[in-house]
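User: Is it possible to get a 3D structure for a protein together with its bound compound? The compound here is SN-glycerol-3-phosphate. I've pasted both below.
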Amino acid sequence: MKFYIDSAIISEITEIANWGILSGVTTNPTLIAQAGQNFKETIIKICEIAKGPVSAEVTAENYQEMIEQGKEFANWHELVVVKLPCNINGLKACRYLSSQGIPTNLTLCFSVNQALLCARAGAKYVSPFIGRLEDINENGLNLIESIREVFTVHSLKTEIIAASIRTPQHITESARLGANIATIPYKLFANLIKHPLTDSGIDKFMQDWKNRNN
Ligand code: G3P
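Assistant: Yes, that's possible. Here is the predicted structure of the complex:
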């Protein structure tokens, strides 16, 4: 499973890119608004830092305008992936943009049927939201598992981006269940590498090294 960061904040993306484990970035209108910078400039800058696919989400609601926005975003940088909603207009725009060779990420996916339709519309990526399903007392990880099963049974190449990730367990389980990618908020990355036994082990090694007699 690859790691993407779910952020539009340049300092956060730069930090995780510097760890050497970053494969891409996802943004959404909320994250772009929080970052407080110009949308186009932000996406181009992120592409330069990430050196991998960067999802930029349309804000239009009808599919003709989604297509226009998608074509515009794709012109900004070769790494841009056009993010579209999992609804009828999103499917139509996905089919058109995919036929033009523009990669798409279908977002706000909450069911296997939605994921299957996205794959058939030519989506390069589909993003099931784990945390938001748990918010309404449904099992988000079961959705990852079911989509993986259906995509494998039917040899569908659309990649699964586990999204709306809230805990380290979501990441471990997404990897076990066969998500291709997890898109992770910045603050969770530190939790993934940190372990108290690693830290105490390093302290002991350093102490013994300083106290050596040879
Ligand atoms: O990748 C989707 C993500 O941005 C949504 O996360 O925590 O707002 O449900 P959240």
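DSSP finds eleven helices and eight strands in the chain. The mean pLDDT is 97.
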